[in-house]
Amino acid sequence: MGYIESYALFITNYIHGEDENARQLRRTLARYLCLTQVFVFRDISIQVKKRFPTTDSMINAGILLREEKEKLHSIELQYDKYWAPIRWIHSEALKARKEETITSDLLYWKLCAEVDKFRHNLQLLCNYDWIPIPLVYSQLDLVVLMMTIIEFVFFTGWLKVAQALLNPFGDDDDDFECIYLIDKNFATSLCIADNYDRLPKIRPDPFWRSNKRSPASPSTALVGVNFKITSNNQASWTRDDLQTIGRGKIMNIASPHSHHLEESTNRKPLRLAQNSTFQINHSIPLNLSMNNDDNNELLRYKFPVHL
């Protein structure tokens, strides 16, 4: 349908300058893109045709200037003139390159390529409107003689759907909102052209001198628990995980052999109830002994399970 944000961003990215000429050039190129879109939509959309029945109505809307209207009328061609505003864009871009407003040939070539891509998309839209697809979807000879009522209802609904597909650019509620698209593209493109240099200053982020990379706020930060789901769908923590529970608190866990854990291969998970929702209680004792099943009951008390 031709959303214009990407192309307006290309224009503002390749044409810099805070003087009046650079600003006017950016706005003019963006307006030419909208003008091309209006020319195409006038021939395929009933809504746009009613909104802009003549070129004078386009002048009153601010999309077309009077001298540009004279240039269009001076072109002697019996076919459509969709290409004229695109040609103006290429000419103005070449002039800007010669004046060093566009700083390199690569940027000039890229800008022209993006404009041609916009024109190609509009041409593709014209081709779809030229030959409705599917062509024979609505060409059915419906004869109600001995047909059942169910067949009649289905075929009638089929024809109604085909009728809606014949002209998606009409006045119906389920047709494309071309008027909204034109208004949006025109306002958005001019806004992008005017605000290309209004950028926030680059400042250090809150994690500039910290190794922390979590973007959560302090009120929503999660407790650093390494939660695991075992093969039999049981919730479990390892001993090393329990050492990291809490905000900035390190808890020492004694092993059954009265020495601290050193190897990850010696981990024994503490299992909670299966298929349950749990909440963490921060009042965990600083020293836990794990030599019998009584400590598992203690953990169940400190980590209450809510079914």
Question: Care to describe what's here?
Answer:
The protein has three domains: 5-132 and 172-194, no CATH class; 136-166; 228-306, no CATH class. It is 48% helix and 5% strand. The protein has eleven helices and five strands; from the N terminus they run H-H-H-H-H-H-H-H-H-E-E-H-E-E-H-E. A hairpin with a 4-residue loop joins strand 1 (228-229) and strand 2 (234-237). Mean pLDDT is 70; it is low at 241-291 and 298-307. The chain starts with a helix and ends with a strand. It is mainly alpha-helical and 307 residues long. Helix 1 (5-14) packs parallel to helix 9 and helix 2 (20-44) packs antiparallel against helix 6. A three-stranded antiparallel beta sheet has the order 1-2-3. Keywords: Cell membrane, Chloride, Chloride channel, Ion channel, Ion transport, Membrane, Transmembrane, Transmembrane helix, Transport. Its main location: membrane. It is a multi-pass membrane protein. Forms chloride channels. One of its GO terms (cellular component) is chloride channel complex.
